[in-house]
Amino acid sequence: MRNSFIRYLFRPKLDNPVFVEGLPGFGNVGKNAADLFTKYLDGKLFAEYYSPFFPDYVHVGSNGICSPPHYEFYAPLSKERLNAIVLTGDSQPQLDNVPAHYEICEEILDFAQKLDCELIVTIGGVPVSSERKDVYVAATTKKLAAEIMGKGGLIYGKGRIMGATGLLLGLAKRRGLKGFCLLGATAGLQSDKEAGVAVFNLLLDFLRSRSKNQNEWEKG
């Protein structure tokens, strides 16, 4: 495989869906939250992304079947669920391979825009020394940051957000897209399911309110 590619399983019918990314990382917070969100949506796998920039190993399931590292895209089939797409996966490129991160994130955003996504949400973990499961936010606009704070989020200031969680948001802003990043506080020593739950709950509260307000506006 010389080039990255996306394999469609089917094409979902969605109207300006929210794009939510949650990949393995610090405390595995992003992956845990994305898995919870996918289950909530009753999301179905509709596309897979493969790239030569992913690590050179395969994942072997409990049934002995192996598969190369890849990203997965999920979407709800029912209109009763939130209008969203979830990106998750089992790995990321090596941190020191900066060009790979940029290329992959640009291709992911190309894909998101083809699906008419206008709001980008990324999820990750942030190291803390306390046991509190706070959720921090960084956003492309002050208004979005204030909305998340109104749901209980705390501003994440004067720091860095590594990997796809940060880069997707920065590149999305450059394209004129709106978005925000949710960072679950975690010690990061092992997979932190509690931090994932905290992020999931805040995200769900925000998207429910957003969907309700939009429906009320459309009804006039």
For the structure shown, list the relevant keywords.
220 residues, alpha/beta, Rossmann fold, 9-stranded mixed beta sheet, 11 strands
In words, what does this structure look like?
This protein has 220 residues and is α/β, with parallel strands linked by helices. The protein has a single domain (5-213), classed as 3-Layer(aba) Sandwich (Rossmann fold). Helix content is 35%, strand content 25%. The chain is built from five helices and eleven strands. It has helices at 29-41, 98-114, 142-149, 163-174, 193-219; strands at residues 5-8, 18-22, 44-50, 59-60, 66-67, 71-75, 84-89, 119-127, 135-139, 154-155, 178-186. It has a nine-stranded mixed beta sheet with strand order 1-3-6-7-2-8-11-9-10, with helices on both faces. It has a two-stranded antiparallel ribbon with strand order 4-5. Helix 1 crosses helix 5 (193-219).
Question: Can you describe this structure in just a few lines?
Answer:
Helices cover 35% and strands 25% of the residues.
